[in-house]
Amino acid sequence: MPYGAPRTVRDHVLFVERRLKAAHVALGHGTGDVRDEAAWLVSGAMGIAPGALTRHLASVPGRAITARIRALLASRIRTRQPLAYLLGEAWFAGRRYIVDPRVIVPRSLIGEFLPEGGGSPLADPDITSILDLCTGSGAIAIAAARAFPKAQVDAVDISEDALKVAVRNVRLHGMSGRVHPIASDLFSRLEGRRYDLIVSNPPYVSEAEMAELPREYRHEPTLALAGGTDGLDLVVPLLRRAREHLTADGRLVLEVGASRAALEARFPDQAFLWLASLADECVGYWHRQDLEDWAGD
Ligand SMILES: C[S@@+](CC[C@H](N)C(=O)[O-])C[C@H]1O[C@@H](n2cnc3c(N)ncnc32)[C@H](O)[C@@H]1O
C-alpha cells in the first residue's frame, strides 16, 4: 500500500485491521488484539489456519479471496457477530473446532492447563476418567482427552443444541471412542459416576455484567453466559456437589471469571487456590478433600 487498494496478503491484513479499529469492534472471542483478528479473518477467507498466514504474507490473493475478505469484514462490522461464527470455526488449545451460535466461542483459560502430549499440572497423567461439565462445543473435553491419553471423557451440557455441535467436534477430532456427549442438568443424570478429574467452565456472568456486554457477546447463547445476580447460580451448586462425583484422589478445576470476587466474599472462611494463567487468576483448583466443607446445602 500505503495508498490505494490492498494488494498482498500483508496489505489486506493491515487494511482489515484499520477498518476493524475504526469500527470499534469488540474482541474476546478467540483474539484480544485487532491485528490478530485481522490476520484470522484473512486466513479464514483464504481457507488456511491463522498460524500458516506468515508463509503467505507476500503473495497476492485472487479475486475470489479478495471478495471473501471484503464480505467477511463488512459482516463483522455490520452484524457484530464474532468472527468465529462468520467463519464457522474457533481455535482452542491449538486446534480447530466447529462453532455456530448454538455454543459460545471456546476461550476458556482451562485450555492452558491441558497441554497435548502430557505435562498437565492438573492430575496424574495416567488418570482414566474425566468429566467436562458444561461442555458447550466440546472443546475442553476433547483437549482433555488429548492431554490425558488414557482417559475416557464425559462431555455434559444441559443444551441439546450445544451437544449437537459437540458431537460434530468429537467426530471431527476422531474422539468418538473416548469423548461421550451426555445431556444433563449439572450432575442430575450422572448418578453413581465418579471421575479422577472434573473440569468446568460454567456460565458465571453476573446480571450487572450481562447488561454491559458488547453486541458481539449477545450473539452467544444466554444460557452459556448468565450466572444470575452475582454469577454464582451454577458455580455454588457445582462446588457443593462435585465431591460426590470425584474418586478418592479426584480434582475439580473450575473457571469462575469475574465472579471470583463474589465467591470469595460469600464464603470468606474458605481457602481458595487459584491457578495462575496467562490472562487471569480465576480458575480454581480443589482436591476432593478440600470439598468436604462444600458438601450439603
Ligand atoms: C460458558 S459455556 C462453556 C462452554 C465450553 N465449556 C467452553 O468453555 O467453551 C457454559 C455451558 O454451560 C451450559 N449449561 C448451562 N446451564 C447448565 C446446566 N444447568 N447444566 C449443564 N450445562 C449447563 C451451557 O449450555 C453452555 O454450553
Tell me what you see in this structure.
This protein is of the alpha/beta class. The chain folds into two domains: 9-87, Helicase, Ruva Protein, domain 3, CATH 1.10.8; 93-294, Rossmann fold, CATH 3.40.50.150. The chain has eleven helices and nine strands. The strands form two sheets. Strands 5-4-3-6-7-9-8 form a seven-stranded mixed β-sheet, with helices on one face. The longest helix is centred in the first third of the chain and has 17 residues, at 63-79. The N and C termini lie far apart (64 Å). The mean pLDDT is 96. Bound molecules: S-adenosylmethionine. S-adenosylmethionine binds next to α5, β4 and α9.
Question: What's this entry about, in short?
Answer:
With 297 residues, this protein is α/β, with parallel strands linked by helices. The chain is built from 11 helices and 9 strands. The protein has helices at residues 9-22, 34-46, 63-79, 83-87, 139-147, 160-172, 207-212, 215-218, 222-225, 235-241, 260-266; strands at 89-92, 95-98, 129-133, 152-157, 179-183, 195-200, 246-255, 274-275, 283-287.
